[in-house]
Automatic annotation (TrEMBL):
Gene Ontology MF annotations: histone deacetylase activity, NAD-dependent; NAD+ binding; NAD-dependent protein demyristoylase activity; NAD-dependent protein depalmitoylase activity; zinc ion binding
Matches recorded under InterPro entries: DHS-like_NAD/FAD-binding_dom, NAD-dep_sirtuin_deacylases, Sirtuin, Sirtuin_cat_small_dom_sf, Sirtuin_class_I, Ssirtuin_cat_dom
Organism field: Caligus rogercresseyi (Sea louse)
Family: Belongs to the sirtuin family. Class I subfamily.
Enzyme class: transferase
Active site: 195 (proton acceptor)
PROSITE patterns: SIRTUIN (PS50305)
Reactions that this protein is recorded to catalyse: N(6)-acetyl-L-lysyl-[protein] + NAD(+) + H2O = 2''-O-acetyl-ADP-D-ribose + nicotinamide + L-lysyl-[protein]; N(6)-tetradecanoyl-L-lysyl-[protein] + NAD(+) + H2O = 2''-O-tetradecanoyl-ADP-D-ribose + nicotinamide + L-lysyl-[protein]; N(6)-hexadecanoyl-L-lysyl-[protein] + NAD(+) + H2O = 2''-O-hexadecanoyl-ADP-D-ribose + nicotinamide + L-lysyl-[protein]
Swiss-Prot/TrEMBL keywords: Metal-binding, NAD, Transferase, Zinc
Residues annotated for NAD(+) binding in this entry: 90-94, 100-102, 175-178, 270-271, 294-296, 333
EC number: 2.3.1.286
Cellular component terms (Gene Ontology): nucleus
Protein name: NAD-dependent protein deacetylase
Binding site for Zn(2+): 203, 206, 227, 232
Length: 357
C-alpha cells in the first residue's frame, strides 16, 4: 500500500474526519464514499463512525435522581411511578416449588423421558405435532404442575398484588403458566399470560371450554383428558401456547396499548431469551426507568450499542458511563421484592397479603 493510500486509511479511521461542517457538501460526501470503496478496513471505519455517532448522540432525559436501587425507591415514593409494568419469568415461581421442566437434566423431565423414550427433549412436551401424536407425556407433566394445594404464591407474586392494591400496576406480563398470580389475587384484567396458562382449557375437536378446576380434577383421573360431550370425546388441551401456535391476541393487543405509557418497568426472574417477550423491554419510552430483579444480569446484550438501539433492539445498559435508567438488583426475586417493599415502607402490608407468614 502506498503512503498516500495509508494516509487515506488513517483518515477513514479518524471519526473527526467526517464530523466537520463541510461533510454535508455533496463533493465531500462523494469523496468519502470513494475513499470507503477503496478501503481495506471497512469494518474498522464503520466501528469508528458508530463510536463517534454514539458518543455524540444526546442522552435521553434522566428521570432518576441516582441510577441505583435507592434511586428507584425515591422515584416510586415521589409519586412519579404511577403506571408500573411488571415482566416476569419462571424465576419468580422457583421458591414456590414449581418443578423445572424446561431443562434436560431436571428431575421431572428425566422421569417423563424414562417412561416415554421418544420424548427427545423438553420442547417435545410443548410441540403441537408431538402432542397430537402422543399427548400422554404432556398430561403426565400437567399432573405434577396441577397439584393445586402444593404450590403457593411467593413474596414476589404478592408484591405484584401489592402494586395493584396501591393503584400503581398498569399491567403484569408473565411467561409462566402456573397461574400463581391469580392465586395471589391479581385481577385477571391486569394479567397478560403471554404463553397462556392452565386457567382454562379447550377441546381440540369441538372447541368446548373448561375451567382450571375441571382440568385439575380430570388430569388425575385420566391419562389423556378428553371432552365430556357424548358426541365428541376429543382431546382437551390447556390453553398454553405450544410451539407452532400463535401467542394470545390479548398479548399483542395490550402491548401497544400499555408500553408507551409505562413510567417504570420491573423485570423479574426471566432470562429474556424467548421472543417476542424479551423484546418488550425496548417498548417502553426511552426515558422510562427499568429495574431488573434477577439472579444474574440479563437483557444487556447490546445495551450500549448505538446501532442496535436505533433498531429498537439495544437491550439494557447497566454498566456504561452513559447509563441513565437501568438498575440491576442481583439476587432472588423474593429477596429483591422484600427489600423493595421494606425500602418503600410497605413491609407490613406485604406480610399481611401473604397471610401474616
Amino acid at each position: 500500500m502506498s503512503g498516500e493510500e495509508m494516509d487515506k486509511e488513517d483518515r477513514l479511521r479518524d471519526p473527526e474526519y467526517f464530523s466537520g461542517s463541510s461533510s454535508s457538501d455533496d463533493d465531500d460526501i462523494e469523496e468519502h464514499l470513494r475513499l470507503l470503496g477503496h478501503s481495506d478496513d471497512i469494518d474498522g471505519y464503520l466501528a469508528s463512525r458508530i463510536l463517534h455517532l454514539d458518543m455524540n448522540q444526546p442522552r435521553p432525559a434522566q428521570l432518576l435522581d441516582e441510577v441505583s436501587f435507592e434511586g428507584i425507591v425515591r422515584y416510586i415514593t415521589s409519586g412519579k411511578a404511577r403506571k408500573i409494568i411488571t415482566m416476569v419469568g419462571a424465576g419468580i415461581s422457583t421458591s414456590a416449588g414449581i418443578p423445572d421442566f424446561r431443562t434436560p437434566d431436571s428431575g421431572l423431565y428425566a422421569r417423563i423421558a424414562e417412561e416415554y423414550p421418544d420424548v427427545g427433549n423438553p420442547t417435545d412436551l410443548f410441540s403441537m405435532n408431538y402432542f397430537r401424536m402422543n399427548p400422554k407425556p404432556f398430561f403426565k407433566l400437567a399432573k405434577d404442575l396441577l397439584k393445586s394445594q402444593s404450590f403457593r404464591p411467593t413474596p414476589c407474586h404478592y408484591f405484584i398484588k401489592l402494586l395493584e392494591s396501591k393503584g400503581l400496576l398498569l399491567r403484569h406480563y408473565t411467561q409462566n403458566i402456573d397461574t400463581l398470580e391469580r392465586k395471589a389475587g391479581v385481577n385477571s384484567d391486569l394479567l397478560v399470560e403471554a404463553h397462556g396458562s392452565f386457567a382454562s382449557s379447550t377441546c381440540l375437536s369441538c372447541g368446548l371450554r373448561y375451567d382450571q378446576a375441571w382440568m385439575e380434577k380430570k388430569v388425575h383421573e385420566m391419562d389423556v383428558v378428553t371432552c365430556e360431550r357424548p358426541d365428541c370425546h376429543g382431546i382437551v388441551k390447556p390453553d398454553i401456547v405450544f410451539f407452532g401456535e400463535s401467542l394470545p391476541e390479548r398479548f399483542s393487543g395490550l402491548v401497544f396499548q400499555d408500553f408507551p405509557f409505562c413510567d417504570l418497568l420491573i423485570i423479574m426472574g426471566t432470562s429474556l431469551q424467548v421472543q417476542p417477550f424479551a423484546s418488550l423491554v425496548n417498548q417502553v419510552p426511552e426515558t422510562t426507568p427499568r429495574l431488573l430483579i434477577n439472579m444474574e444480569v440479563v437483557g444487556n446484550e447490546g445495551g450500549n450499542d448505538f446501532i442496535l438501539r436505533l433498531m429498537g433492539r439495544g437491550g439494557m445498559d447497566f454498566s456504561s458511563e452513559r447509563r441513565y435508567r437501568d438498575v440491576a438488583e442481583i439476587g432472588s426475586c423474593d429477596a429483591g421484592c422484600s427489600k423493595l417493599a421494606e425500602a418503600l415502607g410497605w413491609k407490613e402490608e406485604l406480610i399481611s397479603l401473604m397471610g401474616g407468614s
